Each structure stands twice: as C-alpha cells, then as structure tokens.
Amino acid sequence: MAQGETDQTLALLEGQVKALYHRLDELNATIDALRHELTLKDFEIARLKRMLFGQRRERFDTKTAWLPGLLPTAQNDAPSAQPAAPEKPAKERKPRKTARPRLDADPARVPERHVTQKPAQTRCGCCGGALVKIGEERNERIEFKPQVFERVITHRPKMACNQCKGGGVVVAPKDDPPITGAGPVGLSLAVDIAVQHYADHLPFHRIATRYARDGLFINRATLSRVAGRVADALQLVVGAMEAELLSSDAVMGIDGTGIKILAPGRCRRRAAYVLHGRGHVVYRMLQAEDANTVLEGFGAFRGVVISDAAKVHTGKVGAAMGLDVALCNAHARRYFFDARESDPARAEYALSFYATVAHCEQQWSTLDAAARQAARQRELGPRFEAFRGWLQEAMGKVQARSPMAGALGYALRHHEGLTRFLSDGRIPWTNNESERLLRHVVVGRKAWVFRGTYEGAVRGCVLWSLMMGCRLLGIDPRQYLIDTLHALATTPKRLVGTLTPAQYAARAHAAAARVA
C-alpha cells in the first residue's frame, strides 16, 4: 500500500475516533443532566411526603445524607474553589446530672399513713422476759385511690318562735354561687374539667369515661358548658395580659397555626395566633390571616417582634405601624435543609454555619442582655458578613428556580431582619419558642380534631393562654385557677392585672423566699 493511502486511512480513523469521543461526551452530558433532573424530582417527592406525613427530623448528617460527586460540575456550575465549611464545634461534655429518684412524692399533697406490725413473739424464748424495742425495719410503698368526689349538701334550717309566732321566720343566707355559675358543679370540679381538656388534651368523652369509673356520671354537653363558664370568668385576666403585652417595649414572639371550626356542611379553617413576652402567653383566635387582623392592636407596641418573613408580618401594614421586626433564623436554615439533596455541598456549608451560630448562642444563654449583645457583635457579626458574601457569590452560580436558589434568595432578601438580633441582646436568634407554644395546640388538635364553634375556639384560647403561662412559669395550673377564680369574686376590674400567672408566680416565689 502506498504511503499516501496509509496516511489517508489513518486520518480517516482518527476522525472517526474523534467523532466517537465527541458523541461519548454528548451522551455523558445527557446522563449527567438526567441525573440532576432525577435528584430534583427526588427532592420534590420528599417535599410532598413531608406535606402529607409531617416534617422529618432536621438533623443533617454530612457522612450519610449525600454521596459526593452525585451532581455534575457542569450542570450545577459549582465553584472551582468551594469555601471550606465552618468547622463544627466539638461537643462539650455536659456535667453529669443528678440521678432522679425512680419514685417520689410531694409530702404536701401525698399524705402518709403509718402501719406498725408487731411480731407474734413478745417474750424471750430463753428466759421468758419481755422483749424491748432496739430498732426497726422500714419499707415504703405508694398506693393509688381513685378520685374522691364529695357531694356537699347545705342544710339551712328555718327558725321561728313557737310562742308568740310574731317574729317571723329566720333562715341562714344562701351561699354565694361559684363564679363559674350556679348548678351542681362546684368550683374545684369545674377547674379539673378545664385542666384535663385544655392542659392534658383529653377530649370530653374521655373525661366523662374517667369520671364514670370513679362514680360520677356527667355528659359531654355539661362538660363543655362548664369549661366554657370557666373561660368566660377568666377572660378579664387574659385581656389584661394582652393589653400589658401590646403596650410594652418588650421582645414579643408571634406565630400562628390553623384550627378547624365545625360548620354546617363542612369545616371552616381559622387561625390561632400566639403572642408571648414579659412572662405572658396569649393565644388569639382570628377570623382571617390578613395583616390588619393579625396585627390588630399592635399600633401602641414599641418593642421588637420576632416572627417569620410572612407578608402579614413584614408588609406595608407593619411598616406603617413602625413595627420593628426581627426574623427567625430557623426558617432560613430550614430552606437549606430542604435543599440538601439537590445541592449537598452548599447545603452542608450553610448548615454548618448555622450549627456554629447555635453553639455560640447556647454558650451565651446565661449572659445578661448587654454582655450577650457585645459577644454577638464581636463573634457573630463578622461571620454573618462573610456568610452574606458567600450567599451573593453562590447566587450567581446556581440554577434558577432550584431549591438552593430559593434558600439563597430567602437569606439574601431578609438579611437585615435575620441579623437584627445582633444589635439587641434581648432578641433570640430564632422564633422556636413560638413554635413550641403552638405545639401545645397542635398536639391537642389531634385529640379534639376541631372546635364546635368559633366562640368555643375563643374560649379555648383563654384557657390555653393560662395553661401555657403556668407551664412556662412552673406553677400548678389547677391550684392557680382555683385561687384566681376565688380572688376574682372580690378583685375590682382595675386590679385584675395582679391575677396573671406571672404575678401569681412572683408572689409564690416571694413567699417561699420569706419562709426560707
């Protein structure tokens, strides 16, 4: 074969090889694009599952949550020099807690009954002398007695003179009816019904069943009416708590959740909002979730509101009121958590950053507001500025409308609100306290499913406010309600503010300090 023909054949073969390599590159690019699309579909499926079956745990494991190299560099346009993720702080060894006793009882509430068992032999088997006590063996057990209901029957004898019969009839005056209304249900029983339903999440039919086992037969309609009367009597106290909170300059957390109201034909959805601060917890029932309804009464508030970035909190209505809003960093973190499957490298970096912030905040939890503000500005201020620079750089390198683009955009749009806590040591860096307070309503919602009427939901908010206030302050809700209902009968309206759970707890602590 001539040299020219050989060169021509080699050139033809080289061209074919190059064409095959080019075709292979095209196929690889198509495979990479399909992989990326499958990852986005998996993310969407996971999001829909969370909507149907609930939120999954938000703990991010960088070793098992994703496989490195799953996404192609060309499609995701990842930076060539990805900044190293902030080092996660090492877990400090917590001091060992004192072991709790397996069983303990409050001596003020659990009475003691002593039983002495004498031995069958009281004389010495050797000499016949009387045995004397040289000590004793002791063991304890706690027994349970069902609830003891007491029927109180008041007799008022009629007295008259049997001689002249001119003095008329003398009879003792009637007892004042309980503040919850006249009827056979006493004050302590009414309070027990309210606490079981609104603090312990027991539906009325379960309360009726429990009472029936102990010998008291009461129907659900009566239970509902009694709980409503308790709420109506305590409405003034919760109103005083709300007025004090909305006229203050404190830091107030707000958040809301949906509640179903039974209506003819179908259930209507309404919203319950929680406001908390200065030791008060107030639930409000709203007909609508627009800004004017949610922020009703906030015109006189001169403090800081911590919330999520919903338009009802950050829109024109709040701006016209001059509302100072600090945004929740847990919401910003959640977007990165949701995007970890579609963009694991950037999600890991952001989640590590928020883990560092959480560690610092935990260390500063015992500091006063001024010291915490100084520590935040010194330690977290530069970190948030560097994080903002990373957000801006990454925003130009991710695909539009991807989960990571949404997370980056949220953090950039609301950077000012998310960093508001740096300039005030009183402001928490998240609004998780509001989420925990709403959890009480959400957990109970699984038991009672819906409220019968809107007015019933309003009464429920009254009792939820007092129950959660007692829980946060560490006081017994049953005893608080009994004492407060007794006090309301003689307290003028202008002094109702002294009956709030915060004031009650302060008086209890002062009394305990005096005794100590």
**How is the biggest beta sheet arranged?**
5 strands, mixed
Mean pLDDT: 85
- CA gyration radius, whole angstroms: 34 Å
Order of strands in the sheet with the most strands? 5-4-3-6-7
Strand content: 5-15%
Distance between termini? 114 Å
Description:
This protein is of the alpha/beta class. Among the domains are: 187-323 and 450-515, no CATH class; 329-430, no CATH class. Helix content is 49%, strand content 9%. The chain has 17 helices and 7 strands. It has helices at 3-53, 73-76, 187-198, 204-213, 220-246, 291-294, 311-314, 316-321, 329-338, 344-363, 369-395, 403-413, 415-418, 432-448, 454-473, 477-488, 501-515, and strands spanning 158-160, 169-171, 251-263, 266-277, 280-286, 304-307, 324-327. The strands form 2 sheets. Strands 5-4-3-6-7 form a 5-stranded mixed sheet. It is elongated.
In short:
The protein is of the alpha/beta class. The protein has helices at residues 3-53, 73-76, 187-198, 204-213, 220-246, 291-294, 311-314, 316-321, 329-338, 344-363, 369-395, 403-413, 415-418, 432-448, 454-473, 477-488, 501-515; strands at residues 158-160, 169-171, 251-263, 266-277, 280-286, 304-307, 324-327.
Key descriptive features of the protein:
single chain, elongated, alpha/beta, 17 helices, 516 residues, five-stranded mixed β-sheet
Topology:
Layout: H1 3-53, H2 73-76, E1 158-160, E2 169-171, H3 187-198, H4 204-213, H5 220-246, E3 251-263, E4 266-277, E5 280-286, H6 291-294, E6 304-307, H7 311-314, H8 316-321, E7 324-327, H9 329-338, H10 344-363, H11 369-395, H12 403-413, H13 415-418, H14 432-448, H15 454-473, H16 477-488, H17 501-515
